[in-house]
Amino acid sequence: MTSLPASDKPSLKVVLCSPRGFCAGVVRAIDTVERALAKYGKPVYVRHEIVHNRYVVESLRQKGAVFIEELDEIPDADVPVIFSAHGVPKSVPIDAGKRNLLAIDATCPLVTKVHREAEIHHRRGREIILIGHAGHPEVTGTMGQLPAGAVRLVQTAQEAASFVANDPDRLAYVTQTTLSVDDTAEIVAALKARFPNIAGPHKEDICYATTNRQEAVKRVAPVVDAMIVVGSPNSSNSQRLKEVALRNGCPHAELLQRAADIDWNRFGSISRLGLTAGASAPEVLIEEIIDAFAARYAVSVETVSAVEESGIFFPLPRQVRSGEAAE
Ligand code: SF4
Q: Largest CB tally within 10 Å, which of 32, 97, 113, 123?
């Protein structure tokens, strides 16, 4: 559309949530693919979307990454294959080894931490409850760390209320990293009420990035007419941000991938817009949304900050660290 003259535009305050967008695990995963392309050349295979964002995946595809869902789609041996930030079942690196692929694990270290917790509980003879969403690759990866049946999925407080334990005194729980903080607290409370001896994480499994982005949305939601969450529909933490906005007093919230997806009929008569992005969505997409609103509104931008998040950094996988030889 042609931009209106500034004097004809209605005013719009854009309230930016901070922190928003990329987390340290996503930065590490994207850097891993870029470093692998620089080191090994094309093609570099990536099992599953490296992070759940179409813009990121397309950018990497253009640079030479080849996205696959299963290893048997890779026609050659001795080529690099990167496992996505969500983690993979134990069987996947084993299969990669059998096929002589160069496996590079971009699983977020905070997901790997949950894998290790589950293994420790299993070694101590505990039945494990995983609080999470069926079908999400992180859930598949966490359940796949242990033999079938060792980890059982609980998705809701209702399921927690009806869970039948093999031995109520030998029970533990772990969680997906990208859940709603409030929903998870409710599920954990339901489990603890029924199984007082259940073992759990010393510190939350929900990661810092998920927690902080939800906290920022909670502050902004009550003071805006609408909220846009930039992210992909298959991004768990982005979906949760939209839910958090709606539950905390925002009358209208949408998860959108790009500015082109904005339905202007639904954002026509607002004076305050909240804006955030899931942990896999780059800042350039936030800028694109602001530009789209600036073509129709006289936009002023304010930032509401919940937590200072600078300085969080995860080292790259050793195969793509500078100065380290590939295995
Ligand atoms: S959202 Fe959390 S768990 Fe997922 S990649 Fe980012 S830091 Fe890691």
A: 32
Query: Helix (H, G, I), strand (E, B), or coil: what is residue 269?
Result: coil
Q: Output b/e per residue, 170-208; b: 16+ Cβ within 10 A.
A: bbbbbbbbbbbeebbeebbebbeeebeebbbeeebbbbb
Partner residues linked to 65 by β-bridges: 44
Model confidence over 298-311: pLDDT tens digits? 999 999 999 999 88
Inter-CA distances, 285 with 38, 104, 126, Å: 25, 28, 44
Would the CB of 277 count as within 6 Å of ligand 1? no
- pLDDT score, position 93: 98
Percentage above 90 pLDDT, the chain: 93
Tell me the C-alpha to C-alpha distance, in Å, between residue 101 and each of 35, 76, 84, 112, 319: 17, 8, 15, 21, 13
Residue at token pair 């209208």: 252
Q: Give the atom of ligand 1 at the shortest distance from the alpha carbon of 177.
A: 3
Question: pLDDT, tens digit, for every residue of 12-50?
Answer: 999 999 999 999 999 999 999 999 999 999 999 999 999
Q: Report d(CA 250, CA 239) in Å as an integer.
A: 15
Q: CA–CA distance from 320 to each of 27, 29, 102 (Å)?
A: 14, 11, 12
Which H or E run contains 284? helix 283-294
111 close to ligand 1 (CB < 6 Angstrom) = yes
Are the CB atoms for 33 and 60 separated by under 8 Å? yes
Catalytic residue among 138, 287, 302, 309, which? 138
The H or E element that residue 227 is part of is strand 226-230
- Examine the residue annotation and report whether 186 is marked as an active-site residue of this protein: no
Q: Give yes or no for residue 326 having a pLDDT over 60.
A: no
Strand order in the sheet with 226-230: 253-256, 226-230, 272-277, 11-18, 298-305
Amino acid letter for position 244: V
